[in-house]
Amino acid sequence: MNHSVLQGTRKHLINQLVFFDEQYSLFFDHYVRDYGREKQTIDEMIQRYKQTLEQLLAQDDSALLASLKSVTLLGSSVKVRFEEDGFEESFTVVYPTDIDPDNNRISFLSPIGRQLLLTAPNDLLDLESPVGRQQVQVREISFTYMGDFSM
């Protein structure tokens, strides 16, 4: 990854942090309908996500580049292997406004997106989906998406 692309990626991650700092309550009002347990779960997930971004952004460029392959962020493409049959599938975790099911772009608020966010290569998950629970292994992560969230 060349220097200008890495700088663009760093800026994109900073913009994610700024978004969650400045637009958090508006985001919640728009996307989180259940203000009980679901709100608490999403709030905790986003707080962990923000802490992870802060840690990543404090790194130098070479460490940041390595980290982009070691943790699932908003904009990461994640290849998973289904343990039952060995089938592999990739998902890109995105903001809710950027979903595209035909291209496996899933919201980080969706059941699968929530489970994939902040995972690392080789993590094992009991992935809950509309078709049931399946054990998967995270095989590979790459940061691929440069879009921005808009309401």
Automatic annotation (TrEMBL):
Molecular functions (GO terms)? DNA binding; RNA polymerase binding; translation elongation factor activity
Give UniProt keywords alphabetically: Elongation factor, Protein biosynthesis
By its UniProt entry, which InterPro entries does this protein fall under?
GreA/GreB_C_sf, Tscrpt_elong_fac_GreA/B_C, Tscrpt_elong_fac_GreA/B_fam
Residues making up the signal peptide according to the UniProt record: none
Q: Where is the Transcription elongation factor GreA/GreB C-terminal domain?
A: 74-142
Q: What processes does the entry annotate via GO biological process terms?
A: DNA-templated transcription elongation; regulation of DNA-templated transcription elongation
- Protein name from the UniProt record: GreA/GreB family elongation factor
Question: What is the originating organism of this protein?
Answer: Brevibacillus gelatini
